[in-house]
Every structure is written in C-alpha cells, then in structure tokens.
Here is the input.
Amino acid sequence: MNPEITRAVEVLRAGGLVAFPTETVYGLGADAANPEALKKVYTAKGRPRNHPLIVHIASAAQVADWASDVPAAALRLAQCFWPGPLTLILPRASQVSELVTGGQDTVALRVPSHRVAQALLRGFGGGIAAPSANRYGRVSATTAAHVRAELGAAVDYVLDGGACDVGIESTIVDVSGARPALLRPGSITAAQLEQALGAALGAASASSPRTPGTLAKHYAPQTPLMLMEADLVVELAASLSRQGQPVAVLARAARQPIQQGVKWISAPQDPAGYAHDLYTNLRALDQAGCSAILVEVPPLEPAWAAVHDRLTRAAAGSATPDAT
Ligand code: TXA
Ligand code: MG
Here is the structure.
C-alpha cells in the first residue's frame, strides 16, 4: 500500500478524521462503525447531529452491510452509475449508528470512483462516513488547500488528490420508497437516471427522507451573493463600483472587466466546466473583500439543474444591494 494510504488507514482505525478526495468534492472521513469518531465529524464541521452522513464503500458488494433491503431500482442505478457521483438512500440495516442516519430509518450509500478514495476504502475495508469537508453551510472543498483552510487542525490527516473532477456534490436518489425520487441534483442528471430506470422519477415528498443539505441556505460564501441576468450584472457592478463599493462578479461570457473596483471571473461556458470551477471561483470571489458577489444566472436548461441548485442556495437570504 502507498505510505500515505497506510497512514490514513491507521488514522481511521484509531478513530481519527481523514479528509480525502472524491470525484465530486473532498470528504471528511471517519470510521462509520465508530460512534466516537462520528461525533468528531459533527464537531469539526459545526454540523447539527440530526443531519445524516453518507457512508462511502469500496463496491456495491458491501451494500448489504449497511442496507436492510436493496430494491430493484437501487440495483439498476448502482449497476449503471457506481463507482461514480451517485448516492442512494436505502432502508438502513439495524446496526447502523444513529450518528450516521441522523435518527432516520434510511442510510445514504455511495461508491466513489476517485482512485485515492478507492485505495483508501480498500485499504480500510469498512465503510467511511464522510460529509463534504467544509464548515457547516459553507462552500464545499474541491482541493486539499481548501480543506485545510476550512477545517485546519480539526482534521487529523489530509490526502491530497489534486482538484476534484466534477466539482459539485453527488446526485442523491431516494430508492427507499415506492418510487425513486431525486433529492439532490448533481452531475448525473434526472434524464440519465430516468433512462437507466426506464421510468419517470417521483418528486421528493413530505414522506421522503430529510436531506438537510437541501435547506434553503447552504453552499454559501460569506459575502452576500445575488443571481441576476447579464445586463443587470453589468449595470449593478458599474453602479456599485462608482459608489466606491468594490464588487465581485461571476460572469458566463468572456468579457473584459467593466472597470476598476470590480473583481471579475468569467466562468466556463459548459455546465461541466462551470461546475468543476464553481467552488474555487466562489472562494476566490469571497476572499476579494467585496460588498457583494453578482452571479450571472446560467441557462434554465436541465443540464444546468445542479449548478442552479447550488447557486440558488448560495444566494438564499442575501438582499440585493441598493444601487441607486
Ligand atoms: O459528493 C458527495 O456526496 C460528497 C462526497 C464527499 O461524497 N458528500 C457530501 O456529503 O456532499 P454532505 O454530508 O455534505 O451531504 C450529504 C447529504 C446531506 O444533505 C444529507 O442530509 C443527505 O446527504 N443525507 C445523508 N443521509 C441521508 C439519509 N439517510 N436520508 C436523506 N438524506 C441523507
Ligand atoms: Mg455538504
């Protein structure tokens, strides 16, 4: 085994926290069968105890260790998309800790494809519970440097696998009920899921498992963030900077910065590229010391659904600044 993986496995076995890269975002990992280690995850993130964690496993062969039943739809999705950026919500096995399930009768499972995550899971052998490696409510980490900046000494060991490919969190599908339902959009789209299932997805309902990552305010920078059409971005940025208020912009088109006092990033034009850079871009804009981050709203097309979801949550609760 590679010495870094050996060290990380030792830390997990000793009940410590290991941050590791996945193809989506970095995870803050703990032994999913060790309640004391799980408590440290909640403390390190500042996350409420009733927010359940995803258990990462090396392969679908381990599902039976965590789930009491695997419906046909779950099998089908696992075959099509694992290893990969898909999390399945299944009925929990009785021995699964309440600290993993948040007291619900379901468990979230995922088989990541990233080679470092796979090496860690195979070396460790058991399940690794891992939320995104960020402080509660904040922007997820997509590099090892982001993890250190977010969590510092609260994490015992950080495996560095470079920047994550996908850049936003996994698609979550509830397969514990009568009909599969999409709980969190991600890079695997609703259309891909429906094609694999050969049936339409149901909507998340009041009886769906709670997914606290889908709270209105989440994935948020500290600077107020507003979503708006391109014309308004240009107008408001110009007006705010004229008033001496520095402003940050996440634009889609590769335009020149309008004027001084505007921190401008032109995001990639395609949804995968946009998602890949999203959290790095939001971090950079958040650190620019501006009074607001103005984000040009991406196209309202299904391929952009996951990006829309994250941007809408990042914007929730921010008031539009007065440009007059
Ligand atoms: O891509 C990802 O999914 C990343 C990487 C590290 O795998 N993980 C991640 O974890 O995004 P976290 O904890 O930040 O988000 C997991 C989401 C939360 O919204 C949580 O509420 C939901 O999954 N969740 C976990 N277990 C659940 C359950 N049993 N029922 C419903 N939702 C659940
Ligand atoms: Mg998260």
The first helix runs from residue 3 to 13. The radius of gyration is 20 Å.
